[in-house]
Amino acid sequence: DGLIRVWDVDTDKAIAEYEHPGPNRGALWGGNEKYVMSWSSGHGTVKVWDVGANKLVAEQEHKLVYGATWD
User: Fold this and answer.
1) Is 38 exposed, middle or buried, given 0-12, 13-18 or 19+ CB atoms closer than 10 A?
2) How many C-beta atoms surround the C-beta of residue 24 within 10 A?
């Protein structure tokens, strides 16, 4: 559906939703769980979201994205 969701495992509810056209291939935490990185091979982008501020802080375009790591 083009959304990346961050879930609270205690309440089983989404605490944040971010638009990222798909198909989305994955997402991961980074920066001491302050940021979420998501990637999409169909849209060809990697996006980084600041969860506390609830905003997009970085976006990079690529032709194909199948995975990512946080360093």
Assistant:
1) buried
2) 20
